[in-house]
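Ticket #4471: structure export looks truncated?
Reporter: QA, pipeline team
Priority: medium

Steps to reproduce: submit the single chain below to the structure queue and open the exported record.
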Amino acid sequence: MNDNKNEKIGKFICEQRRNKHLTQKELADQLGVTDKAVSKWERGLSYPDISLLCTLSDILGITTGELLNGEKSQDSSPEVESIIETTLHYADTATKSKSKDLRKMCAVIYTVLSLIGIITCTICNFAVSGGLTWALYPISSILYGWALIFPLLYCNKKGVLISLLLLTVLTVPFLYVLERIVGTDGLIMPIGIRSSAVGLLYLWFIYLVFSIKKLRKYVAAAIVVMLGIPINVWINTMVSRLLGEIRLIDIWDILSYSILALTSITIFLFGYMHSKKLTHPASSNEGH
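Actual output as written to the record:
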């Protein structure tokens, strides 16, 4: 019964989109989704998110009641439409509120666990050594990890950007603290700064690639995995030079690089075939 309802709504969306002379891509751009998502709606494979229903109705020039019914209504009561829109808005707000509360709870739990870890290390260190010595290492690591993970738990979509910014700012100070605590005679900073710089550039590249809306996700993933090969070679060569060693590519390097290359190719081919499979039935009848 639900499948028939989804198909009815999907056909109705398709009809109204074509009446507005919009392609799936144009409708998707206005809604901030992919054309693949629109294709799924129109074939009854999925349903628009509740937060998109009102906007989708406005774009198609129909009421939310007509959209939910999958057909034009002869008698459309403004009062009924107002109730429907209010209900949808309330449901969307309630869902987002629950999600936000869950994120906050996870962030609080993680913070409490971090504090417990710091307090435990401090007490044990004082009990054994009479001061802070070895505990500085786990304490600094816990604080560093908390600064990076807390935004991901608490800030939702912006959390990734905030964590990347903090990672960029805090990595060098963290390496300096580690070197002071461990006392490696200037070994951590030269290697750590160069390696972390390359790693940070790679992470920022990943963030920017996946931020490009027009770029297919499987293409972005394939590019990111393939780029891991030169990044790996670069870091290994750089570390070897700093240690005064001659870096030779061995069988394990070849194996790991081959796995990365095959993974990248597999991701691209699977994503491409899956995308074609999803869009082909609709594209054959698509009026672009």
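Status: closed, not a bug. The export was complete when the record was re-opened. Leaving a note from the reviewer for reference: The mean pLDDT is 82.
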